Amino acid sequence: EMLEKGGFDHFMLKEIYEQPRSIKDCMRGRIYPEEGKVQLGGIKEFAEKLKNIDRIIIVACGTSWHAGLVGEYLIEEYARIPVEVEYASEFRYRNPIITEKDVVIAISQSGETADTMAAIEMAKERGATIFGICNVAGASIPRLTHAGVYTHAGPEIGVASTKAFTAQVTVLTLMAFYMAQQKGTITTSKLIELLTELDHIPEKIQVALESNDLVKEVAEKIKDSTNCLFLGRGSGFPVALEGALKLKEISYIHAEGYPAAEMKHGPIALIDEEMPVVFIATQNSSYEKVISNIQEVKARKGKVIAIVTQGDTEVKKMADYCIEIPDAKEAFLPLLATIPLQLLSYHIAVMRGCNVDQPRNLAKSVTVE
Ligand code: G6P
């Protein structure tokens, strides 16, 4: 088993460290930075249809649903197509309005999640075109969908999803650019710029992984907490949700992800000196707003752990601990900001003596509803 873990103590840690490679694999043959072009062979036959779609509905569960929220942000930003992100388990039991002009994107690491499969079947009956984003080739979901794009992250053994999540986000980024290209909502020069940077994201993830020792120190400080809040804005919000999910899944610390501005409508009541609050405070369009949210937490003596852009000075003046990630365009921040959060939950869980790879009560894929 040690051999399978490639020298790492747990599959989860191995999979976290595989991300520079898995993201590269996911992009291979799909991006052409010099030409400013994205090619997605799996959905190519629908290229024409993409010019005229009214709406995209993303259905998924768990971590895959969080990837969907990042996708919403990216598709709306670049392709200007309205997106709804639905929990498959809720969607399937509503009477949703679906038309033949809708595209449903089902996201699933395993390709076997029962609720996601049922949501696909329902949308299909109502005439929608279904795309899949899956990690397991030949699984049930890729067989049910009309077309799709594999994430190519390789087998994921740890129950808590890590490399599959970042690969899903990568595919959604490529889909957003592909749709933008089809619809003409992006210029070739803009795509050249974005793809050139995306091409270097694996190296930046490698740099983000270098925060491991510091993250471990932070983990030591907050490992005995009973609660933890994760706050972010914009595309930092789904990152916060995913950070909280990882922590509760494997360390059993109660954690909640929230949009930072919503904090004052509830979670702020929980803040005292015992409460660690993890902020996604990277330099992007919501940076100044996040800073004022950090001040609100500090004023109530909360412990602030901030994920910041390399070289940040503002947040450093306020936060108890800062973990740096390389600078990147806003579109790519979720891929980088997720890395220290994965490491943080991993170290906390190990320190608490939890079974990291197989947390209690959880299954890698939920094939019953
Ligand atoms: C389970 C797993 C999660 C996963 C979710 C959805 O809860 O433990 O890691 O995110 O199912 O699974 P899927 O395979 O559809 O992405």
TrEMBL record:
Keyword Aminoacyl-tRNA synthetase on entry: no
Keywords carried by this UniProt record: Aminotransferase, Cytoplasm, Glutamine amidotransferase, Repeat, Transferase
Annotated SIS domain residues: 46-185, 218-359
Keyword Transferase set for record: yes
Subcellular location: Cytoplasm
Leading EC class: transferase
GO annotation, cellular component aspect: cytosol
GO biological process terms held by the UniProt record: carbohydrate metabolic process; fructose 6-phosphate metabolic process; protein N-linked glycosylation; UDP-N-acetylglucosamine metabolic process
A molecular-function term among this protein's GO annotations: carbohydrate derivative binding
Active site residues according to the UniProt entry: K364
EC number in record: 2.6.1.16
Known catalytic reactions: D-fructose 6-phosphate + L-glutamine = D-glucosamine 6-phosphate + L-glutamate
Biological role: Catalyzes the first step in hexosamine metabolism, converting fructose-6P into glucosamine-6P using glutamine as a nitrogen source.
Assembly notes: Homodimer.
The protein, known as: Glutamine--fructose-6-phosphate aminotransferase [isomerizing]
Species assigned in the record: Pedobacter miscanthi
